[in-house]
Amino acid sequence: MKFIRAKSAGFCMGVSLALRKLDKTIENDSLSGDIYILGSIIHNPQVVAEYAEKGVVTADCPEEIPSGSIVVIRAHGITKQVQHSLSLRGIHVIDATCPKVKDACVLIEENTTDGRVLLLFGEESHPEVKCLLSYAANETFVFDTLEECKKFNLDPDRTYCLAAQTTQDKHVFDAISQELSKKTSLDFVILNTICNATQMRQSEATKIADKTDFVIVAGGYNSSNTRRLAQVVESNGTKALHVETAEELPLEELRSFKKIGLTAGASTPKKIVDQIQKALESL
Predict the structure, then answer these.
(1) Which residue among the candidates 27, 53, 123, 128 is catalytic per the annotation?
(2) Is 128 a catalytic residue?
(3) Are 188 and 180 in contact (CB under 8 A)?
(4) Run of H or E including 126
(5) Class of domain 100-190
């Protein structure tokens, strides 16, 4: 058996930056108070567990964070209303939001102040989507499939802007853009908010799928960009298996494949990818 490992597998710039900020906060002796994260710092349970051992508390809602504490904003960001409320309560806020997410927030804010309605391609329950929506000045519509977009009954007398969650599939987003372009009377602008790192990982996953007959996708089950990689591989006609750790690999079943690909989401630590590679090499 042979295998191909994606060069892009593992942490992206935004994830690395968020974890560096959290590490510096932990190491900063001049700061006093317990350290909190509002939601997981990144969508990887193993990383979150490691920080819990260092005393970092993950809060499910703002009310769980007491005044005088330190809160590090997760890579996915939080709504601007929640961030403002934390500051008002005397909580020391350290912003570790991914710069690509912050750029998307700015674009949405700038393009909705003139009355444009936001059409957002993303997962409505995802924390990043909630963050992005909080920067829209007007009405918003959230959808996560091309089929939903086709059903929109948009008012030609209103103006719109189209944006996407930063980890969405660029090919699907382009298809959505083309679908809206068919409505010749519709005034809408397209905002380029999908992260380059996401596009690169998805493109590499497609190339690996072409060269293999099975692909392992490593990352947290709660990671949307990892789930998307598995979807990209399978939409290319190659079977994919999403796992969090090497212990979950069905090693005996994998022996039947001649060539296996290995990729990982943007929030997957290198050591986990290395452990999976080592398990595959043992075959």
Answers:
(1) 128
(2) yes
(3) yes
(4) none
(5) alpha beta
